[in-house]
Amino acid sequence: MRNSTAPVHTGAPPSAPSGALFSGRHTHLWGFLLAGWLISYADRTVTGPVVSWMIENKAGFIGDASNPATLGGLIGSMFFTGYMLTQYAGGRLGDRYGHREMLVVSLLWAGLLTLVSGLTGGLIGFVVARVLTGLGEGVFYSNDRVLVINHTPPARRTIGLGVVLAGLSIGLTVGIVATPHLIDWGGAWGMGDRAWSMPLYVFGGVSLLVAAATWAFFRARGDRPLRLGPPALRLIGYSVPAAVAIVALFVLADEFGWPDWLTAIGSAVLFLVMVTIVIRQIVTTGRSPQLLNRNVWLVYIGFIAVMWNLWFFSFWSVQIVAESAHSSLGAAALTAAFNAGAGIIGFPVGGWIADRRVRAGKGRKPLAVTCAAVHTVLAVAFGISVANGDPSLLLLGLILFCSGLFFNALQPIVHSLLGDLAEEKDRGSLFGLFNLVAEIGAVASPVVSGVLRDATGSWAPGVFTAAGVMAVSVVLYAMVKERIPAVAAA
Predict the structure, then answer these.
(1) Which of 30, 52, 101, 371 falls 20 to 30 Å from 324 in CA-CA distance?
(2) Measuring CA to CA, which residue among 455, 157, 466 is closest to residue 339?
């Protein structure tokens, strides 16, 4: 059902007028943001294949663990606990200091900490480095979404969000496919059991190059210079106590031998504390009608399923395919990459179809419901294939590709739908809170799936759980009352 609304305004925040920045150059902006997504997702995806290599080769600080899958999933959850806790703060800092500044700070931070991750020598050091990486990368999302929405004509907004998000899919594909080869390259260079460090060095270095290029692009466009110091210091001040809390949780669990599921519950407690603090701040500032209404909560909670499925398949798909089809790690990585690679098509096509509907005065909600429902069905089919035992790589790759098309098309549609539910001045906070809530799926998914695998000896229960979570989101999206931009619908 179409809901009549006032036009959604476009343009940048008051401190950075739209015309002075990207007027007529919004496609150039898309390209640099796509590159940022690409390297950011390669940086964060690398952990899964590295852990899988350690498990397979009984090397590093994972290889001799009694429950390696659970421990590996827990490391992924610690990363996303950090990533989650800076979502709202990143949006707020962007609203205050500038969204361009926060994007460059995020890329520089991620590059440096990814390099540090490769230099660490033990489990705790690696966890600290990955948590800090997550804290810095967490501010990218909310600022990127706002820049695309503010500087893209409403009639092309969703395809812009989709094109930029294609970098996510490319980064996932690069991270999954290239990591085993980069590890082999490290072995050929005589790194031995430290060969797992090579992809971290490579991706960290590329991150710094992308950060420098993005800084130069932004610096050449605008009515004010980029000032990275103040937002970086504020982010450091925010991140240090968050990192201490997350690492303390991990260290205490390791020292006292807590079960890994209990440590995961500890991460959920940190999430609840953060959400409580954020909600109190929003209510105090009188912005609850914009950021805490029924419609946005339906979208917030529904997207938990997206993040759950994204990081279940991104973190564990290589291991699932390798074990289920009894294949090599390299062959499994290529097969699993079909899911991530589908986003190269799914993200922009989903945005293009949604924009056509908006220009025709129709809503995007039916598309979101359809994409979520189809992915649910295909995830169940993938689970059945895994449960039946010894599936072919062709069958697994085909299901992963088809499900990836609909799953990735869903994301820009939801982002655009959400962006039109708030005014421009609140969008940084809106997307920050949105991803803060949704990231609980990314935090819980790797460790819950690892626990299920170690407890049952099969990956099928984890796949069916992911499908069930997505089925809930179908119902939630169907309940959203969509707001169509009047300027685009005219």
Answers:
(1) 371
(2) 466
CB atoms within 10 A of CB 181: 13
Amino acid identity at 113: L
* Tens-digit pLDDT profile for residues 77-97: 778 778 878 888 888 888 888
State CA 341 to chain mean position distance. Answer: 15
How many beta carbons lie within 10 A of that of residue 353, not counting itself?
A: 18
H helix intervals, 389-426: 393-419
Question: Exposure string (b/e) for 97-111, b if CB count within 10 Å is 16 or more?
Answer: bbbbbbbbbbbbbbb
**CB atoms near residue 58 (< 10 Å):** 12
CA atoms within 13 A on the CB side of 265: 6
pLDDT tens for 167-203 read 887 887 788 788 889 999 998 998 888 889 999 999 9
- What is the phi-psi region of residue 153: left when phi exceeds 0, alpha when psi lies from -120 to 50, beta otherwise? beta
Contacts of 394 (CB under 8 A, 6+ apart): none
Domains of the chain as residue ranges with CATH = 18-489 (1.20.1250.20)
